[in-house]
């Protein structure tokens, strides 16, 4: 086992050694490499699932410009749950978007919590969470909101695709930036880089006690580095079928000629989509034609050909 690095350069050295070992494993022991990557995919399942709509709140912005505001509260397993009832509540927020819809103008914001946070035992607890959400929006977007609200009959305002893009990597509004950001990446995070999504959204900690007015209720934890715009790589997606024409699996081949090591790749797979990212080089997001079994999915990178092969069984 590697010792904990005492210096960032030592951490980088250890990470380089780790990925060199993985490259060697892929060439010399492909079965062991397959089992290792399968385990990483299974461990990363909760981090790879996309956000899902939970409920939609409708209220009003009073200042600076009066208009309707729709708040999409979403479930996202990638957001960590509070470690205890007294700990802050992590959340992720998309940008505040203004929509011009025929006869009216309104705004939308997407807020994601861990699913366990939204499983409130009674309406009083849910109302408390909603009040905290309102307070976060007011403080970070410099808005004054009406304290009255109602739960819409629909669970999501806007399209599902728009919500996913908003939470996964939409641009942050200026009020979210502050000087107390962290750019460090731990060795454990880098080890699991193959499964992580690149997300420029802030992950925030929301204090549950709203009565302590002198205490900062929100702490921002985010990387403020803006990567260069990557290109879409060439790919081929095929559906393998049995003798009765029943779909068995999806095979996705992605050409990554500028990639020299699997350590550069970041892969996210859910039941209905795939995201492949190589920072500052490639980005591919595909909506899958069939629902797949993400737990049984395998991924292999051919270093010599520069081709990533993903096999996704269809349940």
Description:
The chain has helices spanning 8-28, 30-43, 45-48, 115-118, 123-141, 160-169, 187-191, and strands at 52-63, 67-75, 89-93, 97-101, 104-113, 144-145, 150-151, 203-206, 218-221, 235-241, 247-255, 266-269, 273-278, 282-287, 298-302, 307-313. α1 (8-28) packs across α2 (30-43). Strands 1, 2, 3, 4, 5, 6, 7, 8 and 9 form a 9-stranded mixed β-sheet that branches. A 4-stranded antiparallel β-sheet has the order 10-11-16-15. It has a 3-stranded antiparallel β-sheet with strand order 12-13-14. 24% of the residues lie in helices and 31% in strands. By secondary structure, it is an alpha+beta fold.
Note the main attributes of this structure.
315 residues; alpha+beta; 9-stranded mixed sheet; 4-stranded antiparallel sheet; disordered N terminus
